[in-house]
Amino acid sequence: MITTATSQATRWRRRGDNALRFVAAVPVGYGASSLWAMALARILPMSRSEATVTATLVALLLCALAPMYAYAERSGWRALLVLMLLGGIAGAIAWSSITATGRV
Question: Mean pLDDT over all residues of the chain?
Fold first, then answer.
């Protein structure tokens, strides 16, 4: 009886971790890559159109790498934390660039 309860608890823990990795991979990974596109488009030393295209290509790569990282990480919570931290850094760069230059 104890082994059945333990195996059910382990099964639910694995399902929860998989759901957490999915949340880290898809919406958080997309948000982080979008924020990096915005930040890079503002800080790259090129013309606006070239910086936008370059930042979009980099964000496309990040959007593909985020799910790979989320499922390769040891823990779903750690993957979520790292991807949110990367998105926060990009958001801070974009926000400081907007407040410094005054243009959106």
Answer: 93
Dihedral, CA of residue 12, residue 76, residue 38 and residue 58, to nearest 10: -110
Give the chain's domain count. 1
Judge whether residue 63 has pLDDT over 70. yes
Measured between alpha carbons, how far is 21 from 95 in angstroms, rounded to an integer?
28
pTM over 0.85: yes
Task: Report the alpha-carbon distance of residue 56 to residue 63 in Å, rounded.
Answer: 10
Q: Which domain holds residue 60?
A: 2-101
Residues 6+ apart with CB under 8 A from 45: 51
